[in-house]
Amino acid sequence: MRCIICHSQKQQLLQDARGARFQVCEECGFIMRDRQQSLGREEERQRYLLHENSRENEGYVQYLQRFLNESVLPHAAADCRILDFGSGPLPVLTELLREAGFTTDAYDPFFAPDTSYTAHTYDLVILLEVIEHTSDPAAVIQQLSQLLNPGGIIIMQTQLVTRQIGAAFTSWWYKEDPSHISFFTRESMDVLARRVGMIAGYPGKNVIKYYAKG
Ligand SMILES: [Zn+2]
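Above: query sequence and zinc ion SMILES. Below: predicted holo C-alpha cells.
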C-alpha cells in the first residue's frame, strides 16, 4: 500500500468512531479515505445537491467574492482565460467571473460534463473546494497543468491538514462529509506540485497556488 501522492510505503491506518477508514502517509501527511468506502456516483451527486450554494445565498456569494478579490483577481489580466474546474450544481463562481469580464469555462463531472475545455489553454485554473473530492488528485492536477499557458497558475482552496488536526484527525469536522476523500498537508501539496513540475505557494489560509518554475 503506497501513498498516491508521494508513493511512500510508510502508511498508517486509522478508523473513526463510525467505522470510516483512512490511510495516513507518514512521509508527506496525505490522508486518503478508504476508496472502498467512497460514495457511489449517484450518492455523490445527491450530496452536492444538498449544498445551498446559490446566488440567493448572500453569505456564499460574499465568500466567493472575497476569494476572487484576494486569490484570483491579483493574477487576472483583462484578456485572461479562466477555467472553473469542479463548478458544482450552480456555477456561481463562473457567473461572477464572466460578469467581471473574463472569458471563463466551467467543467464539472456531474453538472457541466462538457469536456471541450480540454481543447483550450488557460491562464488561471481554479479548483475551489474541489481537490478534496477527487479520488486521483495527482491525475487531475497533471491534466490541468498541461492546459496552462506559459506563466499560468493553478489556484486551489481546500482545508489543509495541519499538525494539530493530524493528531485529532478522527474527530475533525471536515472529514465528516463523506464526499471528502483526499486530505492534503502542505508537504503533500509540495510533493504534488513537484510531480507536475510546478512550485506551490501558500498565500492565505487553505489557499494553495501552483506556479510555473523559474
Ligand atoms: Zn505521501
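The longest strand covers residues 148-157.
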